[in-house]
Amino acid sequence: MNDGETFGFLGPNGAGKTTTIRILTGIIAPTEGSASIFGKDIVKDTIAARKLMGIVHETSNIYDDLTAWQNLMFTAELYTIEKSVREKRGKELLELFGLWERRNDKARGFSKGMKRRLTLAMGLINDPRLLFLDEPTSGLDVQSNLIIRDVIRDLNSRGVTVFLTTHNIEEANLICDRVAIVNKGRVAAIDTPERLKGTIQSVQSVEVAFEQSHPDQMKDLENIPQVSEVRKEGDKFRLITENPSAVIASVMEYAKGHNNRVMNINTYGPSLEDVFIKLTGLEVRIKGVRTVE
Amino acid sequence: MRIYYLKPNIIVSGMLFPLFMFLAFAAGNPGGPSAMIPGLVAITILFSASSIEPVSVPIERRVKTFDRLLSAPVSLHAVVLGESMSGFLYSLAIAIVVLIAGALLFGMSIIIFLPLVLGLLLTSFCFATMGTLFASYPTESPGDIMSMLNVVRLPLIFLSGVFIPLASIPPLGQIVAYFSPLTYGYDLIHAGFTGSSHFNPILDVLMLCVFIIVFQFAANRLFKKYNT
Prior knowledge:
The complex is a heterodimer. Chain A is an alpha/beta fold. Chain A has helices at residues 17-24, 46-51, 68-78, 83-96, 112-124, 142-157, 169-175, 193-198, 217-222, 244-257, 272-280, and strands spanning 6-10, 36-37, 40-41, 53-56, 130-134, 161-166, 178-183, 186-191, 204-210, 227-233, 236-241, 262-268. Chain A is 38% helix and 22% strand. The two termini of chain A are 18 Å apart. By secondary structure, chain B is mainly alpha-helical. Chain B has helices spanning 8-27, 37-49, 52-62, 65-70, 76-106, 113-135, 142-158, 171-178, 181-194, 201-227. In chain B, helix 3 packs parallel to helix 6. The relative contact order of chain B is 0.15. The A-B interface holds A 25-29, 46-48, 50-51, 55, 57-59, 61-66, 75, 78-80, 122 and B 3, 63-65, 67-75, 228.
Protein backbone atom coordinates (compact mmCIF):
# COMPACT_ATOMS: atom_id res chain seq x y z
CA MET A 1 0.00 0.00 0.00
CA ASN A 2 1.12 3.53 -0.71
CA ASP A 3 1.23 6.12 2.06
CA GLY A 4 -1.87 8.33 1.98
CA GLU A 5 -4.00 6.28 -0.40
CA THR A 6 -7.41 4.75 0.10
CA PHE A 7 -6.92 1.12 -0.71
CA GLY A 8 -9.87 -1.18 -1.31
CA PHE A 9 -9.68 -4.88 -0.61
CA LEU A 10 -12.46 -6.59 -2.53
CA GLY A 11 -13.51 -10.17 -2.51
CA PRO A 12 -16.45 -12.49 -2.10
CA ASN A 13 -17.40 -13.84 1.32
CA GLY A 14 -14.73 -16.20 2.58
CA ALA A 15 -12.03 -14.77 0.30
CA GLY A 16 -9.80 -13.88 3.26
CA LYS A 17 -10.46 -10.15 3.68
CA THR A 18 -11.09 -10.17 7.42
CA THR A 19 -8.28 -12.67 7.99
CA THR A 20 -5.93 -10.29 6.19
CA ILE A 21 -6.99 -7.44 8.47
CA ARG A 22 -6.53 -9.64 11.54
CA ILE A 23 -3.00 -10.43 10.38
CA LEU A 24 -2.16 -6.82 9.55
CA THR A 25 -3.44 -5.65 12.95
CA GLY A 26 -1.50 -8.33 14.82
CA ILE A 27 -4.49 -10.22 16.17
CA ILE A 28 -3.37 -13.42 14.48
CA ALA A 29 0.10 -14.34 13.32
CA PRO A 30 0.76 -15.03 9.64
CA THR A 31 1.56 -18.63 8.75
CA GLU A 32 4.16 -17.28 6.35
CA GLY A 33 5.45 -13.96 5.05
CA SER A 34 5.63 -10.67 6.93
CA ALA A 35 3.85 -7.34 7.16
CA SER A 36 5.01 -3.98 8.40
CA ILE A 37 3.12 -0.80 9.26
CA PHE A 38 5.17 2.31 8.45
CA GLY A 39 8.33 0.24 8.95
CA LYS A 40 7.17 -1.49 12.15
CA ASP A 41 6.98 -5.25 11.81
CA ILE A 42 3.52 -6.31 12.98
CA VAL A 43 4.84 -9.50 14.59
CA LYS A 44 8.07 -8.24 16.12
CA ASP A 45 7.01 -4.69 16.95
CA THR A 46 3.27 -5.21 17.43
CA ILE A 47 2.53 -2.51 19.99
CA ALA A 48 4.45 0.23 18.17
CA ALA A 49 2.69 -0.72 14.92
CA ARG A 50 -0.74 -0.70 16.57
CA LYS A 51 -0.18 2.78 17.97
CA LEU A 52 -0.06 4.05 14.39
CA MET A 53 -3.32 2.46 13.35
CA GLY A 54 -7.01 2.71 14.01
CA ILE A 55 -9.18 -0.34 13.55
CA VAL A 56 -12.86 -0.51 12.74
CA HIS A 57 -13.88 -4.14 12.92
CA GLU A 58 -16.60 -5.69 10.78
CA THR A 59 -18.93 -5.95 13.77
CA SER A 60 -19.72 -2.76 15.68
CA ASN A 61 -17.84 -3.97 18.71
CA ILE A 62 -18.84 -1.42 21.29
CA TYR A 63 -19.82 -1.91 24.91
CA ASP A 64 -23.62 -1.72 24.96
CA ASP A 65 -23.69 -1.07 28.71
CA LEU A 66 -21.43 1.97 28.41
CA THR A 67 -22.42 5.36 27.06
CA ALA A 68 -21.06 6.68 23.77
CA TRP A 69 -18.68 8.90 25.74
CA GLN A 70 -17.51 6.09 28.02
CA ASN A 71 -16.88 3.85 25.00
CA LEU A 72 -14.72 6.52 23.41
CA MET A 73 -12.81 7.31 26.59
CA PHE A 74 -12.19 3.63 27.29
CA THR A 75 -10.71 3.17 23.83
CA ALA A 76 -8.57 6.27 24.30
CA GLU A 77 -7.26 4.85 27.58
CA LEU A 78 -6.23 1.66 25.76
CA TYR A 79 -4.09 3.92 23.57
CA THR A 80 -2.80 5.78 26.68
CA ILE A 81 -3.96 9.12 25.34
CA GLU A 82 -3.62 11.98 27.81
CA LYS A 83 -6.91 12.97 29.48
CA SER A 84 -7.18 16.52 28.11
CA VAL A 85 -6.31 15.31 24.59
CA ARG A 86 -8.77 12.41 24.63
CA GLU A 87 -11.60 14.59 25.93
CA LYS A 88 -11.00 17.23 23.25
CA ARG A 89 -10.75 14.65 20.51
CA GLY A 90 -13.72 12.70 21.86
CA LYS A 91 -15.91 15.78 21.63
CA GLU A 92 -14.73 16.53 18.07
CA LEU A 93 -15.40 12.98 16.92
CA LEU A 94 -18.84 12.71 18.47
CA GLU A 95 -19.78 16.01 16.84
CA LEU A 96 -18.35 14.86 13.51
CA PHE A 97 -20.41 11.67 13.60
CA GLY A 98 -23.58 13.36 14.83
CA LEU A 99 -23.54 11.65 18.22
CA TRP A 100 -22.67 14.51 20.58
CA GLU A 101 -26.27 14.96 21.70
CA ARG A 102 -26.43 11.25 22.54
CA ARG A 103 -23.06 11.10 24.31
CA ASN A 104 -24.55 10.20 27.70
CA ASP A 105 -26.88 7.52 26.33
CA LYS A 106 -25.96 3.88 26.63
CA ALA A 107 -25.00 2.38 23.29
CA ARG A 108 -27.57 -0.39 23.82
CA GLY A 109 -30.32 1.92 22.54
CA PHE A 110 -28.44 3.06 19.45
CA SER A 111 -29.50 2.13 15.92
CA LYS A 112 -27.20 0.03 13.75
CA GLY A 113 -26.01 3.14 11.93
CA MET A 114 -25.30 5.03 15.16
CA LYS A 115 -23.35 2.06 16.53
CA ARG A 116 -21.33 1.93 13.32
CA ARG A 117 -20.57 5.65 13.55
CA LEU A 118 -19.52 5.26 17.18
CA THR A 119 -17.27 2.34 16.19
CA LEU A 120 -15.67 4.54 13.55
CA ALA A 121 -15.20 7.35 16.08
CA MET A 122 -13.49 4.85 18.40
CA GLY A 123 -11.21 3.83 15.54
CA LEU A 124 -10.15 7.44 15.07
CA ILE A 125 -9.67 8.42 18.72
CA ASN A 126 -5.88 7.94 18.50
CA ASP A 127 -5.62 10.09 15.34
CA PRO A 128 -4.15 7.16 13.35
CA ARG A 129 -1.90 7.38 10.30
CA LEU A 130 -3.51 4.22 8.97
CA LEU A 131 -7.14 3.27 9.37
CA PHE A 132 -8.40 -0.27 8.82
CA LEU A 133 -12.05 -0.40 7.89
CA ASP A 134 -13.66 -3.80 7.68
CA GLU A 135 -16.95 -3.53 5.75
CA PRO A 136 -17.65 -0.03 7.13
CA THR A 137 -21.00 0.62 5.48
CA SER A 138 -22.42 -2.88 5.24
CA GLY A 139 -26.18 -2.84 5.85
CA LEU A 140 -26.34 0.80 6.96
CA ASP A 141 -28.95 3.50 6.45
CA VAL A 142 -28.33 6.20 3.86
CA GLN A 143 -27.43 8.90 6.43
CA SER A 144 -24.77 6.77 8.10
CA ASN A 145 -23.44 5.68 4.72
CA LEU A 146 -23.02 9.26 3.57
CA ILE A 147 -21.38 10.38 6.82
CA ILE A 148 -18.93 7.49 6.75
CA ARG A 149 -18.01 8.00 3.09
CA ASP A 150 -17.49 11.73 3.70
CA VAL A 151 -15.25 10.98 6.65
CA ILE A 152 -13.19 8.53 4.61
CA ARG A 153 -12.71 11.14 1.87
CA ASP A 154 -11.80 13.76 4.47
CA LEU A 155 -9.29 11.43 6.13
CA ASN A 156 -7.73 10.71 2.77
CA SER A 157 -7.42 14.42 2.00
CA ARG A 158 -5.59 14.86 5.31
CA GLY A 159 -3.05 12.19 4.36
CA VAL A 160 -4.45 9.31 6.39
CA THR A 161 -3.96 5.96 4.70
CA VAL A 162 -7.16 3.93 4.57
CA PHE A 163 -7.35 0.18 4.13
CA LEU A 164 -10.91 -0.76 3.31
CA THR A 165 -12.43 -4.17 2.89
CA THR A 166 -15.82 -4.35 1.26
CA HIS A 167 -17.97 -6.47 -0.96
CA ASN A 168 -19.76 -3.29 -2.07
CA ILE A 169 -17.96 -2.81 -5.35
CA GLU A 170 -19.60 0.50 -6.19
CA GLU A 171 -18.43 1.88 -2.85
CA ALA A 172 -14.86 0.85 -3.66
CA ASN A 173 -15.21 2.40 -7.11
CA LEU A 174 -16.33 5.69 -5.58
CA ILE A 175 -13.77 6.12 -2.80
CA CYS A 176 -10.69 4.01 -3.48
CA ASP A 177 -7.49 5.16 -5.18
CA ARG A 178 -6.54 1.54 -5.81
CA VAL A 179 -8.21 -1.77 -5.25
CA ALA A 180 -7.05 -5.33 -4.85
CA ILE A 181 -9.40 -8.12 -5.79
CA VAL A 182 -8.91 -11.23 -3.70
CA ASN A 183 -10.28 -14.66 -4.27
CA LYS A 184 -9.73 -17.86 -2.28
CA GLY A 185 -7.04 -16.23 -0.16
CA ARG A 186 -5.03 -14.90 -3.10
CA VAL A 187 -4.79 -11.47 -4.67
CA ALA A 188 -6.06 -11.76 -8.26
CA ALA A 189 -5.36 -8.16 -9.34
CA ILE A 190 -4.25 -4.79 -7.96
CA ASP A 191 -4.79 -1.52 -9.79
CA THR A 192 -6.85 1.66 -9.94
CA PRO A 193 -10.58 1.09 -10.52
CA GLU A 194 -10.42 2.75 -13.96
CA ARG A 195 -7.45 0.71 -15.13
CA LEU A 196 -9.11 -2.46 -13.96
CA LYS A 197 -12.26 -1.53 -15.85
CA GLY A 198 -10.21 -0.67 -18.93
CA THR A 199 -8.91 -4.21 -19.13
CA ILE A 200 -12.27 -5.74 -19.95
CA GLN A 201 -13.70 -3.47 -22.64
CA SER A 202 -15.42 -6.56 -24.06
CA VAL A 203 -17.85 -6.28 -21.17
CA GLN A 204 -19.76 -3.24 -22.40
CA SER A 205 -23.51 -3.18 -22.10
CA VAL A 206 -26.72 -1.62 -23.37
CA GLU A 207 -29.50 -1.04 -20.88
CA VAL A 208 -32.98 -0.85 -22.38
CA ALA A 209 -36.51 -0.39 -21.02
CA PHE A 210 -39.56 -1.12 -23.20
CA GLU A 211 -43.03 0.36 -22.86
CA GLN A 212 -44.65 -3.08 -22.96
CA SER A 213 -43.27 -6.36 -21.75
CA HIS A 214 -44.10 -9.89 -22.82
CA PRO A 215 -42.85 -13.34 -21.76
CA ASP A 216 -40.65 -14.00 -24.79
CA GLN A 217 -38.83 -10.66 -24.61
CA MET A 218 -35.75 -12.04 -22.85
CA LYS A 219 -35.41 -14.89 -25.32
CA ASP A 220 -35.83 -12.51 -28.28
CA LEU A 221 -33.10 -10.23 -26.96
CA GLU A 222 -30.76 -13.17 -26.42
CA ASN A 223 -31.17 -13.97 -30.12
CA ILE A 224 -29.65 -10.64 -31.20
CA PRO A 225 -26.34 -11.75 -32.81
CA GLN A 226 -23.99 -9.28 -31.04
CA VAL A 227 -25.41 -9.94 -27.57
CA SER A 228 -23.45 -12.39 -25.43
CA GLU A 229 -25.65 -12.24 -22.34
CA VAL A 230 -28.93 -10.69 -21.21
CA ARG A 231 -29.63 -9.79 -17.57
CA LYS A 232 -33.06 -8.71 -16.35
CA GLU A 233 -32.63 -5.84 -13.89
CA GLY A 234 -36.00 -4.73 -12.53
CA ASP A 235 -38.09 -3.42 -15.44
CA LYS A 236 -35.00 -3.12 -17.62
CA PHE A 237 -32.74 -5.47 -19.59
CA ARG A 238 -28.96 -5.27 -19.65
CA LEU A 239 -27.46 -6.64 -22.86
CA ILE A 240 -23.77 -7.49 -22.62
CA THR A 241 -21.93 -6.87 -25.87
CA GLU A 242 -18.70 -5.93 -27.58
CA ASN A 243 -20.58 -3.76 -30.07
CA PRO A 244 -23.07 -1.41 -28.39
CA SER A 245 -23.96 0.62 -31.49
CA ALA A 246 -24.98 -2.50 -33.46
CA VAL A 247 -27.04 -3.72 -30.53
CA ILE A 248 -28.84 -0.38 -30.23
CA ALA A 249 -29.82 -0.58 -33.90
CA SER A 250 -31.02 -4.17 -33.46
CA VAL A 251 -33.03 -3.27 -30.35
CA MET A 252 -34.77 -0.37 -32.10
CA GLU A 253 -35.62 -2.61 -35.06
CA TYR A 254 -36.90 -5.30 -32.70
CA ALA A 255 -39.16 -2.79 -30.91
CA LYS A 256 -40.55 -1.49 -34.19
CA GLY A 257 -41.21 -5.02 -35.45
CA HIS A 258 -43.19 -5.85 -32.30
CA ASN A 259 -45.20 -2.60 -32.15
CA ASN A 260 -43.38 -1.73 -28.95
CA ARG A 261 -41.65 1.47 -27.89
CA VAL A 262 -38.22 1.94 -26.31
CA MET A 263 -38.73 4.16 -23.24
CA ASN A 264 -35.09 4.46 -22.31
CA ILE A 265 -31.80 3.18 -23.68
CA ASN A 266 -28.26 3.72 -22.32
CA THR A 267 -24.83 2.34 -22.99
CA TYR A 268 -22.37 1.50 -20.25
CA GLY A 269 -18.68 0.68 -20.12
CA PRO A 270 -17.52 -2.19 -17.94
CA SER A 271 -18.12 -1.69 -14.23
CA LEU A 272 -15.80 -2.65 -11.43
CA GLU A 273 -18.36 -5.30 -10.65
CA ASP A 274 -17.79 -6.81 -14.10
CA VAL A 275 -14.07 -6.93 -13.33
CA PHE A 276 -14.81 -8.48 -9.99
CA ILE A 277 -17.08 -11.13 -11.49
CA LYS A 278 -14.54 -11.97 -14.10
CA LEU A 279 -11.66 -12.19 -11.65
CA THR A 280 -13.46 -14.07 -8.97
CA GLY A 281 -14.83 -16.47 -11.54
CA LEU A 282 -12.11 -18.62 -12.99
CA GLU A 283 -9.86 -16.17 -14.77
CA VAL A 284 -6.81 -15.02 -12.84
CA ARG A 285 -4.86 -13.24 -15.54
CA ILE A 286 -6.19 -10.25 -17.41
CA LYS A 287 -4.30 -8.35 -20.07
CA GLY A 288 -2.77 -5.12 -18.79
CA VAL A 289 -3.50 -5.70 -15.12
CA ARG A 290 -0.76 -6.53 -12.73
CA THR A 291 -1.77 -9.92 -11.41
CA VAL A 292 -0.47 -11.73 -8.41
CA GLU A 293 -0.73 -15.49 -8.20
CA MET B 1 -15.23 -5.06 33.88
CA ARG B 2 -17.72 -3.22 36.04
CA ILE B 3 -20.37 -3.95 33.41
CA TYR B 4 -20.07 -7.66 34.14
CA TYR B 5 -20.11 -7.59 37.94
CA LEU B 6 -23.90 -7.48 38.13
CA LYS B 7 -24.60 -10.07 35.44
CA PRO B 8 -27.09 -12.63 36.82
CA ASN B 9 -24.82 -15.65 36.42
CA ILE B 10 -22.01 -13.87 38.26
CA ILE B 11 -24.31 -12.94 41.15
CA VAL B 12 -25.61 -16.50 41.37
CA SER B 13 -22.24 -18.17 41.06
CA GLY B 14 -20.14 -15.62 42.95
CA MET B 15 -22.47 -14.62 45.80
CA LEU B 16 -25.58 -16.73 46.21
CA PHE B 17 -24.03 -20.16 45.71
CA PRO B 18 -21.39 -19.72 48.48
CA LEU B 19 -24.04 -18.23 50.80
CA PHE B 20 -26.40 -21.20 50.41
CA MET B 21 -23.50 -23.60 50.73
CA PHE B 22 -22.57 -21.88 54.01
CA LEU B 23 -26.14 -22.00 55.34
CA ALA B 24 -26.46 -25.67 54.46
CA PHE B 25 -23.30 -26.66 56.32
CA ALA B 26 -23.68 -24.16 59.18
CA ALA B 27 -27.11 -25.61 60.01
CA GLY B 28 -25.62 -29.00 60.83
CA ASN B 29 -22.35 -27.83 62.35
CA PRO B 30 -21.98 -28.26 66.14
CA GLY B 31 -19.72 -25.20 66.34
CA GLY B 32 -22.47 -23.00 64.91
CA PRO B 33 -22.27 -20.52 62.08
CA SER B 34 -19.33 -18.57 63.55
CA ALA B 35 -17.06 -21.62 63.24
CA MET B 36 -17.90 -21.68 59.55
CA ILE B 37 -16.91 -18.08 58.78
CA PRO B 38 -13.33 -18.89 57.61
CA GLY B 39 -14.80 -21.55 55.32
CA LEU B 40 -17.45 -19.15 54.06
CA VAL B 41 -14.77 -16.57 53.28
CA ALA B 42 -12.67 -19.18 51.46
CA ILE B 43 -15.45 -20.58 49.28
CA THR B 44 -16.81 -17.11 48.61
CA ILE B 45 -13.40 -16.19 47.27
CA LEU B 46 -13.19 -19.42 45.28
CA PHE B 47 -16.52 -18.85 43.54
CA SER B 48 -16.46 -15.08 43.16
CA ALA B 49 -12.85 -14.77 41.96
CA SER B 50 -13.15 -17.55 39.41
CA SER B 51 -16.57 -16.52 38.04
CA ILE B 52 -15.84 -13.16 36.42
CA GLU B 53 -13.61 -14.11 33.51
CA PRO B 54 -15.51 -17.27 32.50
CA VAL B 55 -18.56 -15.03 32.04
CA SER B 56 -16.99 -11.84 30.69
CA VAL B 57 -14.52 -13.33 28.19
CA PRO B 58 -17.01 -15.50 26.23
CA ILE B 59 -19.48 -12.58 26.13
CA GLU B 60 -16.71 -10.31 24.87
CA ARG B 61 -15.84 -12.89 22.24
CA ARG B 62 -19.47 -13.07 21.15
CA VAL B 63 -19.94 -9.32 20.79
CA LYS B 64 -16.38 -8.97 19.39
CA THR B 65 -15.22 -6.46 22.01
CA PHE B 66 -12.50 -8.99 22.82
CA ASP B 67 -11.06 -8.28 19.36
CA ARG B 68 -10.89 -4.63 20.41
CA LEU B 69 -8.73 -5.61 23.40
CA LEU B 70 -6.61 -7.97 21.32
CA SER B 71 -5.94 -5.28 18.70
CA ALA B 72 -5.20 -2.48 21.19
CA PRO B 73 -1.59 -1.38 21.67
CA VAL B 74 -1.15 -3.48 24.79
CA SER B 75 0.50 -6.87 25.12
CA LEU B 76 -1.52 -10.06 25.36
CA HIS B 77 0.05 -10.61 28.79
CA ALA B 78 -1.41 -7.28 29.94
CA VAL B 79 -4.86 -8.26 28.63
CA VAL B 80 -4.69 -11.62 30.43
CA LEU B 81 -3.43 -9.98 33.63
CA GLY B 82 -6.26 -7.44 33.37
CA GLU B 83 -8.77 -10.29 33.19
CA SER B 84 -7.29 -11.78 36.36
CA MET B 85 -7.35 -8.40 38.09
CA SER B 86 -11.07 -8.05 37.44
CA GLY B 87 -11.80 -11.31 39.28
CA PHE B 88 -9.31 -10.44 42.02
CA LEU B 89 -10.85 -7.06 42.83
CA TYR B 90 -14.40 -8.37 42.68
CA SER B 91 -13.61 -11.27 44.96
CA LEU B 92 -11.70 -9.10 47.41
CA ALA B 93 -14.65 -6.73 47.73
CA ILE B 94 -17.09 -9.63 48.31
CA ALA B 95 -14.75 -11.26 50.85
CA ILE B 96 -14.49 -8.02 52.81
CA VAL B 97 -18.30 -7.78 52.94
CA VAL B 98 -18.42 -11.35 54.25
CA LEU B 99 -15.77 -10.51 56.86
CA ILE B 100 -17.71 -7.49 58.08
CA ALA B 101 -20.96 -9.49 58.11
CA GLY B 102 -19.22 -12.26 60.09
CA ALA B 103 -17.94 -9.76 62.64
CA LEU B 104 -21.28 -7.98 63.05
CA LEU B 105 -23.62 -10.99 62.97
CA PHE B 106 -21.54 -13.67 64.66
CA GLY B 107 -18.99 -11.64 66.61
CA MET B 108 -16.05 -13.17 64.76
CA SER B 109 -12.74 -11.58 65.70
CA ILE B 110 -9.42 -11.66 63.85
CA ILE B 111 -6.65 -13.29 65.86
CA ILE B 112 -3.68 -12.71 63.54
CA PHE B 113 -3.99 -9.93 61.02
CA LEU B 114 -1.15 -10.72 58.57
CA PRO B 115 -2.15 -14.30 57.62
CA LEU B 116 -5.71 -13.14 57.07
CA VAL B 117 -4.67 -10.27 54.80
CA LEU B 118 -2.25 -12.49 52.86
CA GLY B 119 -4.89 -15.20 52.73
CA LEU B 120 -7.48 -12.83 51.25
CA LEU B 121 -5.09 -11.30 48.73
CA LEU B 122 -3.34 -14.46 47.55
CA THR B 123 -6.41 -16.69 47.53
CA SER B 124 -8.40 -14.08 45.59
CA PHE B 125 -5.66 -13.65 43.03
CA CYS B 126 -5.04 -17.38 42.79
CA PHE B 127 -8.67 -18.20 41.96
CA ALA B 128 -8.91 -15.22 39.64
CA THR B 129 -6.00 -16.65 37.65
CA MET B 130 -7.74 -20.03 37.69
CA GLY B 131 -10.84 -18.37 36.22
CA THR B 132 -8.71 -16.70 33.57
CA LEU B 133 -7.13 -20.05 32.72
CA PHE B 134 -10.53 -21.62 32.11
CA ALA B 135 -11.69 -18.52 30.19
CA SER B 136 -8.96 -19.15 27.62
CA TYR B 137 -11.09 -22.01 26.26
CA PRO B 138 -12.27 -20.65 22.90
CA THR B 139 -16.02 -20.50 23.26
CA GLU B 140 -18.62 -17.75 23.07
CA SER B 141 -20.86 -19.40 25.66
CA PRO B 142 -20.21 -18.73 29.37
CA GLY B 143 -22.09 -21.95 30.17
CA ASP B 144 -19.44 -24.07 28.46
CA ILE B 145 -16.72 -22.72 30.72
CA MET B 146 -18.83 -22.65 33.87
CA SER B 147 -19.63 -26.34 33.42
CA MET B 148 -15.96 -27.25 33.17
CA LEU B 149 -15.11 -24.96 36.05
CA ASN B 150 -17.70 -26.50 38.35
CA VAL B 151 -16.30 -29.95 37.69
CA VAL B 152 -13.14 -28.64 39.38
CA ARG B 153 -14.57 -26.18 41.93
CA LEU B 154 -17.23 -28.35 43.57
CA PRO B 155 -14.92 -31.26 44.52
CA LEU B 156 -12.37 -28.75 45.83
CA ILE B 157 -14.83 -27.64 48.54
CA PHE B 158 -14.93 -31.12 50.00
CA LEU B 159 -11.28 -31.97 49.49
CA SER B 160 -9.63 -28.87 50.91
CA GLY B 161 -10.53 -29.00 54.59
CA VAL B 162 -13.22 -26.31 54.34
CA PHE B 163 -16.20 -28.30 55.55
CA ILE B 164 -14.50 -31.59 56.34
CA PRO B 165 -11.19 -31.36 58.29
CA LEU B 166 -8.21 -32.65 56.33
CA ALA B 167 -7.53 -35.28 58.99
CA SER B 168 -11.01 -36.74 58.44
CA ILE B 169 -10.62 -37.08 54.68
CA PRO B 170 -9.60 -40.54 53.37
CA PRO B 171 -5.87 -40.87 52.49
CA LEU B 172 -6.50 -40.60 48.73
CA GLY B 173 -8.53 -37.43 49.32
CA GLN B 174 -5.69 -36.01 51.43
CA ILE B 175 -3.28 -36.51 48.55
CA VAL B 176 -5.66 -34.67 46.23
CA ALA B 177 -6.00 -31.92 48.85
CA TYR B 178 -2.27 -31.18 48.61
CA PHE B 179 -2.83 -30.24 44.97
CA SER B 180 -5.73 -27.93 45.75
CA PRO B 181 -5.04 -24.21 46.10
CA LEU B 182 -8.14 -23.95 48.29
CA THR B 183 -6.42 -26.13 50.91
CA TYR B 184 -3.67 -23.53 51.41
CA GLY B 185 -5.97 -20.52 51.00
CA TYR B 186 -8.42 -21.82 53.58
CA ASP B 187 -5.59 -22.80 55.92
CA LEU B 188 -4.13 -19.28 55.81
CA ILE B 189 -7.52 -17.60 56.32
CA HIS B 190 -8.28 -20.04 59.14
CA ALA B 191 -4.96 -19.11 60.77
CA GLY B 192 -5.96 -15.47 60.64
CA PHE B 193 -9.25 -16.13 62.39
CA THR B 194 -8.23 -18.78 64.90
CA GLY B 195 -4.46 -18.68 65.18
CA SER B 196 -4.19 -22.36 64.29
CA SER B 197 -3.40 -23.93 60.94
CA HIS B 198 -2.80 -27.35 59.44
CA PHE B 199 0.35 -26.23 57.59
CA ASN B 200 2.96 -23.61 58.38
CA PRO B 201 1.47 -20.31 57.08
CA ILE B 202 4.71 -19.66 55.19
CA LEU B 203 4.15 -22.89 53.27
CA ASP B 204 0.57 -21.77 52.56
CA VAL B 205 1.87 -18.48 51.13
CA LEU B 206 4.50 -20.22 49.02
CA MET B 207 2.07 -22.78 47.64
CA LEU B 208 -0.47 -20.09 46.72
CA CYS B 209 2.28 -18.17 44.92
CA VAL B 210 3.23 -21.32 42.99
CA PHE B 211 -0.40 -21.87 41.94
CA ILE B 212 -0.71 -18.22 40.87
CA ILE B 213 2.41 -18.45 38.70
CA VAL B 214 1.34 -21.75 37.15
CA PHE B 215 -2.23 -20.62 36.42
CA GLN B 216 -1.22 -17.23 35.02
CA PHE B 217 1.56 -18.69 32.89
CA ALA B 218 -0.75 -21.39 31.54
CA ALA B 219 -3.49 -18.80 30.88
CA ASN B 220 -1.04 -16.68 28.89
CA ARG B 221 0.00 -19.65 26.79
CA LEU B 222 -3.55 -20.82 26.13
CA PHE B 223 -4.86 -17.35 25.31
CA LYS B 224 -2.05 -17.02 22.79
CA LYS B 225 -2.79 -20.44 21.35
CA TYR B 226 -6.58 -20.21 21.11
CA ASN B 227 -7.31 -16.49 20.82
CA THR B 228 -4.71 -15.08 18.45
